[in-house]
């Protein structure tokens, strides 16, 4: 007979304990397996005050200390704005009514600040220049603050805080944020539309995108495509589509009317610009050709290692797939689209990358934030040593990037601020005779605008120092004029130079102490009113001129002198 052992029934577990255990397991899984998961939706994230104050401070510093990086900023935007205010200034061929490539609507947007400031400060034109810059800095501050708040609400405070630090201190954002350029306006729009997209305000995101393309830079439409398309998919298609359509039609109609008012004929600067560059009418290669790696080198100069990290965002998607897709991928994808498109163009300029600068910061900080996930074991309940090290390295690596960025910013500001400093000296030499003529030779492309020219200077003239391209001319009495000396082939005009150098009262030159002659060295004809150091790019080592390295920056680099000269009256020479 078989021996029967008593059966022991397992004690029933209460349903509450089962629920608690399941919740504990789920919580442990979410924290340990998924790593740095975005915060719960009921958390508020960063408030707007901190990013607004931090960005506002840095943008104020940019407005007051930024140099002018591109002569197009001066002659295509500052000079026409000066003409609208004071009826004087230089005009490029793009503003001839024959070509009508530039939008006066974009200029009128800045007249909202420039007009009242010019009235308030009367003859202090330089105040208008810096108040417009402050206005640009304010727009940058507002749009970037909205982006930081959106990132904080969707992905947590750490990602938002890291992005804030990069927006404040990277050289690219510091310099581009207060530049008077359509590409900068497009950068504002890209930043704001991306933020609105993350906040799930899809109709507003598409409206801002349309304004950024049509008021700012038409070619930036490629950058706005991902957000626009995905907004149409995720939001109410009808509402989003109508929002973009109404904004686009309104801006186009307003732009055409403004162009008619200033060019004196029915035309569209938006269409003319696209026609010139896209439909075969333009020859942008006339203004310089760069290699396919130009933007990669330029991106590293302005963002150092954060630019490389931004490019790693897509390769790391298998690790961060659940954390950042699809929304953040949609936001940063224009980096790849724009880099690929612009690298294929023969003519390249640094400002062409401005629209994606804020996106570079977002992508780079997202990669830094995912450092621990690279070493995390999905099936382990404990953090490995490498994960702990990666968490420590996040702020360390960010700090190194920001230090390198500050080094780059310092080097550019102190190495190339000579033109702004010298032209400001004109205010202190009103003892020069009224009706003075200020002459500029090879340094015409560093002319900071007529806002720096005091009233005692009758005119600014170019001196032939060997440049054979087409230079800007003073505006005619009407913006509707089509002067015969303008052409779209960059061919010099015989009328663009002032040939009587003896009539020059003042002269601005850069003396790099090379074998070729410098007028300032002729002490019998010219006296130096002011001179400041200017970094000699050709003779200075690349690493030392690009980044400020304590002690070595002054020792290793070579400097010339940026000079303001005044002609010595001939009767004084004869007396001597």
From TrEMBL:
<feature type="transmembrane region" description="Helical">
    <location>
        <begin position="240"/>
        <end position="263"/>
    </location>
</feature>
<keyword id="KW-0808">Transferase</keyword>
<dbReference type="Pfam" id="PF03901">
    <property type="entry name" value="Glyco_transf_22"/>
</dbReference>
<dbReference type="InterPro" id="IPR005599">
    <property type="entry name" value="GPI_mannosylTrfase"/>
</dbReference>
<keyword id="KW-0256">Endoplasmic reticulum</keyword>
<keyword id="KW-1133">Transmembrane helix</keyword>
<comment type="pathway">
    <text>Protein modification; protein glycosylation.</text>
</comment>
<feature type="transmembrane region" description="Helical">
    <location>
        <begin position="133"/>
        <end position="152"/>
    </location>
</feature>
<protein>
    <recommendedName>
        <fullName>Mannosyltransferase</fullName>
        <ecNumber>2.4.1.-</ecNumber>
    </recommendedName>
</protein>
<keyword id="KW-0472">Membrane</keyword>
<dbReference type="GO" id="GO:0005789">
    <property type="term" value="C:endoplasmic reticulum membrane"/>
</dbReference>
<feature type="transmembrane region" description="Helical">
    <location>
        <begin position="328"/>
        <end position="346"/>
    </location>
</feature>
<feature type="transmembrane region" description="Helical">
    <location>
        <begin position="104"/>
        <end position="121"/>
    </location>
</feature>
<dbReference type="GO" id="GO:0016757">
    <property type="term" value="F:glycosyltransferase activity"/>
</dbReference>
<feature type="transmembrane region" description="Helical">
    <location>
        <begin position="202"/>
        <end position="233"/>
    </location>
</feature>
<comment type="similarity">
    <text>Belongs to the glycosyltransferase 22 family.</text>
</comment>
<feature type="transmembrane region" description="Helical">
    <location>
        <begin position="303"/>
        <end position="321"/>
    </location>
</feature>
<keyword id="KW-0812">Transmembrane</keyword>
<feature type="transmembrane region" description="Helical">
    <location>
        <begin position="159"/>
        <end position="182"/>
    </location>
</feature>
<keyword id="KW-0328">Glycosyltransferase</keyword>
């Amino acid at each position: 007979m078989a021996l029967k052992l008593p059966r022991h029934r397992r004690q029933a577990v209460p349903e509450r304990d089962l629920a608690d255990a399941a919740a504990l397991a789920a919580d442990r899984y979410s924290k340990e397996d998924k790593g740095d998961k975005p915060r719960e939706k009921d958390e508020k994230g960063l408030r707007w005050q901190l990013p607004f104050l931090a960005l506002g401070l840095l943008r104020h510093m940019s407005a007051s200390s930024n140099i002018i990086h591109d002569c197009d900023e001066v002659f295509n935007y500052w000079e026409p704005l000066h003409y609208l205010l004071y009826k004087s200034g230089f005009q490029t061929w793009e503003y001839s009514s024959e070509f009508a490539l530039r939008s006066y609507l974009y200029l009128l947007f800045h007249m909202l600040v420039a007009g009242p400031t010019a009235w308030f400060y009367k003859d202090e034109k330089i105040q208008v220049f810096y108040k417009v810059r402050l206005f640009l800095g304010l727009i940058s501050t507002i749009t970037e603050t909205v982006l930081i708040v959106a990132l904080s609400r969707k992905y947590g405070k750490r990602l938002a805080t890291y992005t804030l630090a990069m927006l404040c201190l990277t050289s690219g954002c510091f310099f581009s944020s207060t530049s008077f350029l359509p590409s900068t306006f497009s950068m504002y729009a890209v930043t704001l539309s991306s933020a609105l997209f993350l906040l799930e305000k899809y109709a507003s995101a598409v409206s801002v995108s349309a304004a950024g393309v049509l008021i700012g830079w038409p070619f930036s439409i490629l950058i706005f495509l991902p957000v626009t398309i995905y907004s149409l998919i995720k939001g109410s298609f009808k509402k989003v589509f109508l929002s973009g359509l109404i904004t686009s039609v309104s801006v186009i109609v307003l732009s055409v009317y403004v162009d008619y008012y200033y060019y004196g004929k029915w035309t569209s600067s938006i269409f003319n610009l696209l026609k010139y560059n896209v439909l075969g009418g333009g020859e942008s290669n006339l203004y310089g050709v760069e290699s396919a790696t130009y933007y990669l080198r330029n991106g590293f100069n302005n963002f150092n290692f954060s630019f490389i990290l931004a490019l790693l965002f897509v390769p790391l998607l298998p690790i961060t797939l659940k954390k950042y897709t699809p929304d953040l991928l949609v936001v940063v994808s224009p980096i790849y689209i724009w880099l690929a498109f612009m690298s294929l163009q023969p003519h390249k300029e640094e400002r062409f990358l401005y629209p994606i600068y804020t996106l570079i910061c977002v992508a780079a900080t997202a990669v830094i934030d995912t450092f621990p996930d690279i070493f995390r074991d999905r099936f382990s309940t404990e953090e490995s040593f490498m994960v702990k090290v990666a968490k420590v390295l996040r702020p360390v690596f960010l700090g190194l990037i920001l230090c390198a960025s500050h080094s780059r910013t310092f080097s550019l500001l102190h190495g190339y601020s000579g033109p702004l400093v010298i032209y400001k000296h004109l205010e202190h030499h009103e003892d020069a005779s009224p009706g003075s003529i200020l002459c500029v030779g090879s340094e015409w492309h560093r002319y900071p605008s007529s806002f720096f020219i005091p009233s005692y200077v009758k005119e600014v003239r170019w001196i032939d120092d060997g440049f054979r391209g087409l230079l800007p001319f003073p505006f005619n009495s009407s913006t509707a004029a089509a002067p015969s000396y303008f052409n779209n082939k960059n061919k010099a005009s015989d009328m663009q130079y002032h040939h009587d150098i003896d009539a020059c009262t003042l002269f601005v030159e850069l003396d790099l102490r090379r074998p070729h002659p410098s007028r300032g060295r002729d002490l019998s004809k010219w006296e130096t009113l002011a001179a400041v150091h200017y970094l000699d790019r050709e003779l200075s080592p690349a690493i030392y001129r690009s980044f400020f390295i304590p002690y070595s920056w002054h020792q290793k680099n070579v400097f010339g002198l940026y000079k303001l000269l005044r002609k010595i009256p001939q009767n004084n020479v004869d007396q001597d």
